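pipeline: protein-struct stage 2 | run 1193 | HTH-type transcriptional regulator MhqR
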Amino acid sequence: MNEAEYQKRKQDPSLKLFVVLSKASRTLNDLAQMDMTRYGLNPTEFALLELLYHRGKQPLQKIGERILLTSGSITYVVNNLEKKGLLSRIPSPQDRRVTYAEITDQGRDLLNEIFPKHWEELERFMDGLTDEEKSQAIDLVKKLGRSAEQYKHI
């Protein structure tokens, strides 16, 4: 590729959008992760507790799909949270192959305490946009994600 082609490609809106979205996502994720660690939780532990807090008990086999973890990682995170007393494993009475993870009272108390603070931090991180701009961004990024989904199977 010669210099002229390179300069033209640098101005390509698809490439620029990808770079801008990637950098913004990385920055926001880093900020959110720093906030989560203030509470003694890593991002995966926080995500799992939040899932159980909002959705109730979940089969361990389905958790990976919901928070994008491999089965080995799920076991590790569940073990850590169980040791901390924040969740418990519950065998299914109908199917011995199924085990549920359920948030404990201690886990619920922790999230009741920290989630409002975390939410405030997320709002602070997003204060560069008005509510209307946030709504527009949500719609556009969803549209982009749905469109990009078609290429996952290629």
